[in-house]
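Exercise 7 asks you to align residues with tokens for two separate proteins.
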Amino acid sequence: MPTRKQRRRALKERRHEYETVWVDSEGNELEEPPEEAAAAPERNDRPKRDGTKPKAKTTQQRGGRQVRVPPQPSWRRAVKRGGLFGVVIFAVFAILGSKNGQHNYSAAILFGVIYTVVFIPFTFMLDRFAYNRWQRRAEHQGQKPSAKKR
């Protein structure tokens, strides 16, 4: 049994079915199309549908712009990020960790410090991985790896 959507589509197709009728200058219907209409190709504004979804336009994977050079990994940057992350974690645990309206700030500080201590080396290793990967890719492509020191 067709679904409601399928029934609506079938009704719509029946409403929009039409035949091309050729009429001469006197208003009489013709069996065959006139010569000028037969020579002109049929123009169809709608894309043909064969039951598949239309494919998206392909875009270039690598555009004409420069690839961003990752900065060299540094412990100073990792500590800054870790400190900011620790403050955010402290705020989250201080706000969400309350029981019956009482805040336990010592537990929030403890969680903030633990997360900060774990986060600092993790971000340094992640930066080092990204930088080393960029260097290997640049050497493989024959580019000169030139990163700015900050």
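Second protein for Exercise 7:
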Amino acid sequence: MLRVGCVSENLAPADLKKLRNKQRKARRKAELEKQQAAQAQEKREQHNKSRQQGDAEPDAPQQDELVPEKLARIEDPLEHAIKFLQPLQTLAAHRIETHLMAFQIYYRKQKPLLMLQSIKRAHRLDPSHSELHPCLVIFLQSLSRWKGTLDHPVAMVISQEMEPITKDRSAHQLNKQFLGNLSHLLDARFEAARMMHHLDSSTQQEAITLATSLNKDIGNITLKTCVKVLQALRNGEFGHCPAAVQDYQVRCHARFPYAQAFRPTSPLCDNNHITDSN
């Protein structure tokens, strides 16, 4: 300071003014750099803190911990299913699978008008689709069960809208006619057989025979359809039938030897080691 003071005494007033302005600018610049450094340090600390908390924003609300078991067992699965369904109904309305899935959801929620809506949309796209048939049968069966409990306007609307589709046939009549018309196709036989057992469990053996036949005169025997049949047998959709499951798996393995779904369980694989043949 003494040196600056001595220098300033020897300066002209104009030069002295310039010097003081330069000093003020230097002080302001130093203060600004100090503030910027402090702000940068604060941001770094916030960033490190957010990373430690799971990369969450400092002001963001705390999110639930992502526990797989909790996500797999949500309290209202049907409501979540509808959240996934609604975009599909807008963006994939041209795909019949959208409306078949919608029917299954609304059936579980017991929503008859939305079930009707799903059936009409699917029927408009492909009235002979094999997977539409069980929806029709289940809907007719449900209507019989709900008879007298539906509001009169609702019952009238359903009756009027379903008449062109079912032509006043019962669920049993519809299933019998469907099977008669398409018994030469495996996917149709499977759906008809499934509904046969669904409507009358005493038809188990007949239904299993229909669904599992792989005769040469039956068309559309694809890997996908055969896997569906095997899964239905295993899931109990034809009742308890372990012998039928094993027999069908063996026959499908002979037809599709490289398909993993039909490979018999090997003791060697179960034990996860190779045993000594000696």
